[in-house]
Automatic annotation (TrEMBL):
It is found in: Secreted. It comes from the Eukaryota. Its EC number is 3.2.1.21. This is beta-glucosidase. SMART domains: Fn3_like. Belongs to the glycosyl hydrolase 3 family. GO terms for cellular component: extracellular region. It comes from Amylocarpus encephaloides. GO terms for biological process: cellulose catabolic process.
Length: 725
């Protein structure tokens, strides 16, 4: 892996682990093609053909003069939506929980390959907004957790994987769309530093990875709609970050013809009076605006050039499959295995008191309605708009049709029988029934959930965002009732995000808590491999599980979101305020143990602002490696296992007030029993810098940085200082 990185870094056109791309060559082709297009063809390229007209959620017209078949844009971030025979991969949040760069990339590649096989050009993902300002945010699970660094790496790898497979990725939703409530009218007011250091960061990494397209969001930013916000689209995305692809609206997020065109919007979707806005581009409006010089012809040409450049960049101009409608089967065995690996390696073991892995218990009671498939059918709720049966993903446009679901109860039962255990399943959340099933079993495994999704569906009174952070369906009561009668209670949680565990986490009879997240189609198969110790759990939390909702310091807003907590979301807030979490960001147990030794820090960093020409992602020097930190981890326990070594950085006092520590590196390392390995964290100039509001630039501060390396944000085994002059 190292050698490959060095080799790639040497080739200047390649972003470290994103998509290897030559924008200049793509632009040359795009400009040649532009010269052959009629004005009508140009107009057809930049606007959807209308809602429901075409094979995909969004479709653009063909331009026959250049052999351009038009684009088919389809959701979504975990696999191809509304198609059969695809893979319903685990959502982004589960991929992030693996903290495994390679696996995250493979997942992207799997999604991209199926997208291409179906002839779809643009897959509407991955998601970096919402980032996760609010733990209740309905769509957080579509993305990669609320730490910008973890999310940024996940964006880079996912974009890289999708585009390497031949599809165009679309990083969404840009930006400030942190909640579902009032998302169409919300005004996000984000101070410039918080904007750069938290919310823009993962989008910048997507640009760095050469993402083809970016979707602007429904909300306003500082009073201006995201899709006609000149500051956001032109000044920041295109100029500051050097984004050379195209900006496409979220569906019906366009409010004006002229202003949006002039602000830097490049494509409008879906191109019909969908939802009541009569401000389109494709019914003569944009054409008129260009004719009477409200929108410069050069701006239209730029839109077209960007769209064509992305198409050439991903080599969709030759041999791309035709759009497949109707039934299909593009899922391979490798896809299923990959989906299982992501589901499994994203499982986070939160508590384990000598009970896991299971060793041939005589009898097992499986308890809870969420242990079994939805009795009405695994796809019976449109866009997964219900929380009935085993939870594999949230709800909304970011879902896919399950080709099958490995239900936890089925997978556990079949394994348990092989091991000679008797099994009873009680698919009820009723405490009385749960307790009576549990009381005579050696081991009781209880399933609880929390769900959320997109605002166009309300599930059990939750209109997208969650109403609170409690387990649904009286899950806490069920766990307590079971633990009351069974000394070996194991709680399995399937959830879109953190839930409060205080009512049972310390109960002595709750011997284990297994955070199984959102596993996609391979739910049960993945879980069994962890429960039975085929693999040691290796996932780590991509968010904090706090003791109380108020410990997060943020809550869903009404009409304006002022982002008043600034940089202090999730662990940054708890650290600042000395609040003890239940389970901290980055936490996760294993069946083995790891030692950390031999921290070494070398740096060539010099203080001062980032410099250099703008490359995709920002000023070129931001991406220079300026420090290398290594540590040795040893598997000191009884079984093989993988550890996620995490690096946190504290900035020197010469920087403006900054969180106590921020994630700036991680490396997942598999280790056999007794084996040691050195993990290396390469820090880029950007990773050591803060956003200087006055100078509008990244600045690397002088002084002493605190370097901490460990197994979570609070299990920091090694620390040292790094001084920069
Ligand atoms: C609206 C959602 O916000 C977006 O994520 C999705 O891609 C479009 N609808 C198209 O379904």
């Amino acid at each position: 892996m190292r050698n490959q990185f060095l080799f790639l870094a040497a080739a200047s056109l390649v972003s470290a682990q994103g998509f290897s791309a030559d924008w200049d060559a793509a632009y040359t082709k795009a400009k040649t093609a532009l010269g052959k297009l009629s004005q009508n063809e140009k107009l057809g390229l930049v606007s959807g053909v209308g809602w429901g007209k075409g094979a995909c959620a969004g479709n653009t017209a063909a331009a026959n003069s250049i052999g351009y078949g038009g684009l088919c844009l389809q959701d979504g971030p975990l696999g191809v939506r509304d198609r059969t025979g695809i893979t319903a991969f685990p959502p982004g949040i589960q991929a992030a929980s693996t903290w495994d760069r390679d696996l995250i990339r493979q997942r992207g590649k799997g999604i991209g390959a199926q997208t291409k096989a179906l002839g779809i050009h643009v897959i509407l993902g991955p998601v970096a907004g919402p980032l996760g300002q609010f733990p209740e945010g309905g769509r957080n699970w579509e993305g990669f957790g609320n730490d910008p660094y973890l999310c940024g790496v996940s964006m880079e790898q996912t974009v890289g994987g999708i585009q390497e497979a031949g599809a165009q990725a679309c990083a969404k939703h840009y930006i400030g769309n942190e909640q579902e409530k009032n998302r169409d009218t919300m005004n996000a007011v984000i101070d410039d530093r918080t904007f750069h250091e938290l919310y823009l960061w993962p989008f910048a990494e997507a640009v760095r990875a050469n993402v083809a397209s970016i979707m602007c969001s429904y909300n306003k930013i500082s009073g201006k709609w995201a899709c006609e916000n000149q500051q956001m689209l032109d000044a920041i995305l295109k100029k500051e970050l050097g984004f050379r692809g195209y900006v496409v609206t979220d569906w019906d997020a366009q409010h004006t013809t002229v202003d949006s065109a002039n602000a830097g919007l490049d494509m409008t979707m879906p191109g019909s009076n969908y939802g009541g806005m009569n401000v389109l581009w494709n019914n003569g409006q944009l054409s008129n605006a260009v004719n009477n010089r409200q929108v410069p012809q050069a701006r239209l040409d730029d839109m077209v050039t960007r769209i064509l450049a992305a198409w050439y960049l991903t080599k969709q101009d030759s041999g791309y499959p035709r759009v497949v409608t109707g039934g299909s089967n593009v899922q391979t065995t490798a896809d299923k295995n990959l989906a299982k690996a992501v589901a499994r390696d994203g499982i986070v073991l939160l508590k384990n008191e000598d009970i896991l892995p299971l060793v041939k218990p005589r009898s097992i009671a499986i308890i809870g309605s969420h242990a079994v498939s939805n009795p009405r059918g695994i796809n019976s709720c449109g866009d997964m708009g219900c929380n009935t049966g085993a939870l594999s993903m949230g709800w909304g446009s970011g879902t896919a049709t399950l080709p099958y679901l490995s239900a936890p109860a089925d997978a556990i039962s079949s394994r348990a029988r092989q091991e000679g255990s008797t099994v009873t399943t009680t698919a009820s959340d009723n405490s009385y029934q749960g307790a009576s099933a549990a009381q005579n079993a050696d081991v009781a495994i209880v399933f609880i959930t929390a769900d959320s999704g997109e605002e166009y569906i309300t599930v059990e009174n939750n209109k997208g965002d969650r109403n609170d952070l409690n387990a649904w369906h009286a899950g806490n009561e069920l766990v307590k009732a079971v633990a009351n009668v069974n000394r070996n209670t194991i709680v399995v949680v399937h959830s879109v995000g953190p839930i409060l565990l205080e009512s049972f986490a310390d109960l002595p009879n709750v011997k284990a808590i297994v955070w199984a997240g959102l596993p996609g189609q391979e739910s049960g198969n993945a879980l069994v491999e962890v429960l039975y110790g085929d693999v040691s759990p290796s996932g780590k939390l991509p968010y904090t599980i706090a003791k109380r909702a108020s410990d997060y310091g943020t809550s869903i807003q009404a009409t304006t979101d002022n982002f008043s907590e600034g940089l202090y979301i999730d662990y940054r807030y708890l650290d600042k305020n000395n609040i003890a979490p239940r389970y901290e960001f980055g936490f996760g147990l294993s069946y083995t143990t790891f030692n950390y030794t031999a921290l070494s820090i070398t740096s060539t960093a010099t203080s001062g602002p980032a410099t250099g020409a703008t490359v995709p992602g920002g000023a070129s020097s931001l991406f220079d490696t300026v420090a290398t930190i290594t540590a040795t981890i040893t598997n000191s326990g009884p079984v093989p296992g993988a550890e996620v070594a995490q690096l946190y950085l504290g900035l020197p006092s010469s920087a403006p007030a900054t969180p106590v520590r921020q994630l700036r590196g991680f490396e997942k390392q598999m280790l056999q029993v007794g084996e040691s390995a050195s993990v290396t964290f390469e820090l880029r100039r950007k990773d050591l810098s803060y956003w200087d509001v006055g100078g509008k630039r990244w600045v690397l501060p002088a002084g002493s940085f605190r370097v901490e390396v460990g197994g979570s944000s609070r299990d920091l085994r090694l620390s040292g200082m790094m001084t920069v002059a």
